[in-house]
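User: Structure please.
Assistant: Input sequence and predicted structure:
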Amino acid sequence: MIDTIKTNLKTTLENVLSAQFNKPITVIVEEPKRLNQGDISIPVFAIAKAINLPLSQTVQIVSDAIMTSKLADMVANISSMGGFINLSLNKSIVAKGVFDTFAANEKNYGSMQIGTGKTVCIDYSSPNIAKPFSIGHLRSTIIGAAIGNLYEKCGFTVVRINHLGDFGTQFGKIIFAYQHFGDEEMVRKDPINELVKLYVEFHELVKTNPKMDDEARRIFKELELGNPEYVALWNWFREVSLADYMKVYELLDVKFDSYDGEAFYNDKMQPVIDELAAKGLLKADQGAMIVDLGDQLPPALIQKSDGSTLYITRDLAALFYRKQTYHFYRCLYVVGNEQKLHFEQLKALVKKMGYNYFDEFEHVNFGLVLQDGKKMSTRKGKVVKLIDVLTEAIELSKQHIEEKNPELENKDDIAQKIGVSAIIFNDLKNYRANDFEFNLEDMVKFEGQTGPYLQYTSVRITSILALDQFRYDGEIDFNLLSQDVFFDIIKTAGDYGKTIEKACQEAAPSILAKYLLNLAAQFNSLYGKERFAVTDLQERKTKEHLIYLIRAILDDGMKILGMQTIAKM
């Protein structure tokens, strides 16, 4: 709300002053350096220089412009200090503005329309077929899902893409292994573990029989060329793998519009290679084909000496397909920090090819999941499966419920919502580019900076409102809400839309996560200071309207992050 006032004030002053002095005048509207200086501050140094008048005279001119504008009613006090005009806003009017905005669009409070008519493609999760869905894919999956929700909240059309790792020489190895020592019944019974077992067995045997590698390469080459037998096996491996991954996606409540992986672009790469050649960009290098990207980047390897393609060739084909199919405004790749060079090369390639949308796609990078300071990728020599971690979080959450509220109904369902949400929030509260420490016991606690803390705050508000069978009817005493004890949290509530927009623009769900933690902390502080079960009906209803608003924001924000909301815990 205050952000909207600042924007309106800036526009009003620029229009008035530009017309008065017959030249463009830029006005800066910001927050004061100190809390006791009010709500809004306007530095007038640059304005004085632009209109060529003394500072004191400029202060008076700007102050008069404010107090004769339509925004004057918003101002409770105006003062100047050292070239700054400081405004204290009419708190009851600000509070009314927040509630009016909420009441006008309760179910979509905080929504933006900045993305109307624009499409954003988001490439995320992307596990490798025939391999376990590991903890390593956690970050891409939930960061990508949350960013998609943020863009939708801002009015964009979002295309969610799971670019499956479903092609490559490893499939030649798996097919060889299955044909020589695989068991169809075992694969059908436990597909992922059995396929991994075959892959590992192949690598053990190839040590003493290197010709197996040549045979695996031959199989993959024939797979690329469409050998029906190999294509049928590949389709089966893909199908059973995806069925296994869907169990994780269902738990996380993550959905996609497209599961087109690397294989989908198999017939779309040759036109890209031909275009590179036609534009004189391809160069032969020891039998391989490369594109020179200048002194700042290593050359892009487009095609190996045996004719097979690489990730960057597929990503070029995928990017062109997405642009032609979805006409995207932005295309985001939610991929780890270690792929920075790859996406720099991809951007440079697109630019060299003469396409002006090389700046319309972005590598949304993220750090590692650590345990005891080390990359959390293996446990006793085995891959850490995400489904196992989620199951463990659910069990720990159920233990907490048994300790705190053993009579609670639907404990299993609630434990699942708490446990999965705890893992999601613990990741998203950290800035995505940073590594973070994974401690399951800490993240499922009901106190501290955790997902369960946010869920518990919402549940606490629900229980308060239920006692009085509260209904939102807009009967609010705004003079009461102008008191400092309430006004700080109202200002925070009024910043929800601005927070959503910022988190979207920076592709940083952590901005929203930290906002929600702050809002929850403000409510719990208020709850410790104020009585809600008061006899005065207007006071009680006003306080209930306030916490109803807070709960609405908490619940909506948690849903955007991919968390589950609950009524009891």
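The chain has a mean pLDDT of 93.
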